[in-house]
Amino acid sequence: MGFKYRLLTVLFSLLFFACSQKKKIKHTNALINESSPYLLQHAHNPVNWHPWNSKYLKQAEKENKLVLLSIGYASCHWCHVMEKETFENEEVAKFMNENFINIKIDREEHPDVDKTYLTAVQLMTGNGGWPLNCIILPNGKPIWGGTYFPKKEWLTSLQNITSFYKKNPTEIDDLAERLTNDLKSLQIINTNDSTISFTNTKLKRIINDWKFQLDTINGGLKGNRQFPRPNSYQFLLRYAQQFQDTTLLNFVTKTLDKIASGGLNDHIEGGFARYTVDNKWHIPHFEKMLYDNAQLISLFSYGYQITKNPIYKDIVYATFDFLSKNFYTNGLYYSSLNADSVNEKNEMEEGAYYTWKKEDLKQLLGNDTSLFYDYYGITKVESIEGKHTLVKMYSDFEFSKKHRLKIEELKNKLNSWKDLILKERKKRIKPELDIKILTSWNALLLQAYTDAYKVFGDKHFKQKAIENATALKNEVIADNWKINRNVTQKDNPIKGYLEDYALVIKSYISLYQITLDEKWLLYANNLTTSVFSDFYDKEHNYFNFTSKENATLISNTVETEDIIMPSSNSVMCENLFLLGHYFDTKNYINTSKQMLHNLIPKIEKYPYSHSNWLNMYTNFSNPFYEMVVCGEDALKKTKEIHSKFLPNILLCGSLSESDLPLLKARYHEDKTLIYICVNKTCKLPTEDVNRAISLMKN
């Protein structure tokens, strides 16, 4: 279904609902003109919401009012709870409308605003999350904030703040100034003037420090919750394999096994939830995000490449299948599925679509009930208010041995159970889909398709990668190489952030590596020129998150932490390193090296939140090879090369003559040669892939 058709369907549904419920709908605010499903969800609140726009700050100044920012996203459970309890309340809305200019923001559309005021709230309270609520002055400076509030607490807080502001404006101004200065200070990355030196000794010490944060019992990081953090485990997988750290490899594979078997993974329809609320990977928070699923595909692809565990391959194919059935539209992909859906009482409930009562399962499964309960942990895993999620408790081999079943017999039962559960689940109302099409999240999926193709060699993955990359080029990249944040707002486009540019550049480089079509590499280089023009801070040798063309916030955001996604600066560091090799651009490589060097103090202190930087550190501290393949069989040979786990190579190839520096004068009509080079110094070429790989060890 095309995006335009889907959007029209959503808008028609809202209109139909409004027309059929005239007596119930009393209010409509300015959000009705937005395309974000999250904003549209609040379009009939009695609160007089406005979308994010600097003109509303000017309005607040003119009316001498404070500005109330409320930030969330469509699949956020507690955002929905606060809307229902608080923002739909007439008394609360009346007070908000009289005393504030109220602005509702989709954090996925405006991550710069979200990052700025999330940091402010964390400074004020020590905590952050969504819904994120922050009161600011008309000049944008914050004075108060928090996350979820029950109605009574919210109204009392607003009354107290309003009263204090009217009586003590000078004190409020001073507080706002101090908070803003603190925000600005956090964004400064100091230049590291020491001699640049990246060594394996230091790398090993950093990884050993990181190991103290690892949960060796449950997998993942120590803590009360478990987030998948694909970038972290993909780096640790690389490190474990490259440095033959079997203990670390066992930890990563344990983590992958827990992710694959736990409640995070939807064992019926595929796809992963965002995180689990426990540390054993059992109880999920049920929203499904494109960015998580895309990155987990890459992680499980490389996990399979190293371990050859068939479960990891199944995960990759099942997740692609889930995304294709639920998120796909004309080469691009929607953003997320909600955590909440309508339950049997016709009420919104988190996980209602995914969870099961024991008696319902028993009625469905009959004589297989006890087997099913044991396989999916129904009697062992904590329930969610009397309902159960599915957690695979055993490997198929262990389970078949325990119950004296043949493997084939168990597989037949599993298929039968899934058919029964899926058929029953389809009778339920499915969670709502957020139909925003975000550039950076689609770039992560493009990366997933290229990674999966490298590992599995499935031509379907290459075709889907080209389709997605082409759609991105046509829909969000202008002729002047400027990027839009999303496809959804054609009439009022949101300018792309560094995250969008960095991830598209990275995925285009990766697409070149599987197609050898130089246009993708040239596109990546052209976009990098735009990044330097619009985002680069020459004084500090870093890239701001927000373009110079975007409206200025109270503080520039410099994103460096690799948490749920790799940070935009670490991705640009990697892009510059690779493009510097491809185009022989010394400035790119030197900038990349200095960026990494500047961040070493933070990397050493918090290695678990700088995994992509450590990936780059490994590239600089070890031999990094340029593998050049020229000739009519170049695609065939590069496909064979990709099937090997070779994290420390840059692959460059061509089926014909090329002007790329690494390819000049290396093409032969009668044979396909492979060159192994380090810093432009190459060994004698060979036609044999295995021989070429062995040259990297000599």
State the main characteristics:
698 residues; alpha+beta; four-stranded mixed sheet; 26 helices; 10% strand
End-to-end Cα distance, whole Å, is: 53 Å
Spatial strand sequence of the major β-sheet: 1-3-2-4-5
How many β strands by DSSP?
A: 20
Largest sheet: 5 strands, mixed
Low-confidence stretches: 1-23
CA radius of gyration is 26 Å
The rough form would be described as globular
| Category from helices, strands and their pairing | alpha+beta
Mean pLDDT: 93
How would you explain this protein's 3D organization?
With 698 residues, this protein is α+β, with helices and mostly antiparallel strands. The protein is 51% helix and 10% strand. It is built from 26 helices and 20 strands. The strands form 7 sheets. Strands 1-3-2-4-5 form a 5-stranded mixed beta sheet. A 4-stranded mixed beta sheet has the order 18-17-19-20, sandwiched between helices. The protein has a 3-stranded antiparallel beta sheet with strand order 8-11-14. It is globular and about 80 Å long. The N and C termini lie far apart (53 Å). Residues 1-23 have low confidence and may be disordered.
Q: Mind sketching the topology for me?
A:
Elements: H1 3-20, H2 37-41, E1 49-50, H3 54-63, E2 66-72, H4 77-87, H5 90-99, E3 100-106, H6 111-125, E4 132-136, E5 142-146, H7 151-167, H8 169-186, H9 200-211, H10 230-242, H11 246-261, E6 275-276, E7 284-285, E8 288-289, H12 290-307, H13 310-326, E9 328-329, E10 332-333, E11 336-337, E12 340-342, E13 348-350, H14 358-365, H15 369-375, H16 396-402, H17 407-425, E14 433-434, H18 439-456, H19 459-476, H20 498-515, H21 518-535, E15 536-537, E16 542-543, H22 568-583, H23 586-605, H24 611-621, E17 625-630, H25 634-642, E18 649-654, E19 673-678, E20 681-682, H26 689-695
Parallel strand pairs: 1-3, 2-3, 17-18
Antiparallel strand pairs: 2-4, 4-5, 6-7, 8-11, 9-10, 11-14, 12-13, 15-16, 17-19, 19-20
